[in-house]
Amino acid sequence: MKSGTKVHLLTYEDQDLEDYLLGIHTDLEAFQIAFSLNKFCEAKFARIEDILLNNHKAAFCLYEWKNILMDVNTLLFSNKYKQESIQENTNIDTLFDLPLRNEVSLIPEFKQIDFFIKSSHLETIQTLSKSLIPERGITMTYEVPSNKIKNRLNLIFD
């Protein structure tokens, strides 16, 4: 360095942005939930590329809402994927040919939850939760503490 040169140091604070999760129990499909939120909350959820788990050959639907005015990104994603495979004729004594079903969860600690909404803005989660309560087909919604999830890397979709 040259003598007489000024060195300016910038302070850097690592902000651990907390993600808020809303768990949804329902028999509805993801597009029905997204449509309802778009209609009643003036949200703009749009379908984007699915979340893929290669080790289970599973795909989970993913909807995204980018609120540019508030600089908030909110995601709606499914937690369950049902695989069906054709049963081989190993047991010929059965009356019906039923497919074999295997259910895979994106977040195994909460495999009873059908869908999640993830946002870094708590007020957004609370507003969406209030709008889902009167919806027919929604059994229950509640906030899920993100520290209860063992592998938080499952929540990174970028």
Describe this protein's structure.
This protein is mainly beta and 158 residues long. The chain has a domain at 26-81 and 103-155. It contains 2 helices and 8 strands. The protein has helices spanning 30-40, 122-132, and strands at 20-26, 46-53, 58-67, 72-78, 80-85, 100-105, 115-119, 138-144. The chain has a 6-stranded antiparallel β-sheet with strand order 2-3-4-7-1-8, covered by helices on one side. Strands 5-6 form a two-stranded antiparallel sheet. Strand 2 and strand 3 form a beta hairpin. The longest helix is centred in the N-terminal third of the chain and has 11 residues, at 30-40. It is extended, with a radius of gyration of 21 Å. The relative contact order is 0.25. The model has no long low-confidence stretch (mean pLDDT 80).
Write a concise keyword list for the protein shown above.
158 residues, mainly beta, 6-stranded antiparallel β-sheet, 8 strands
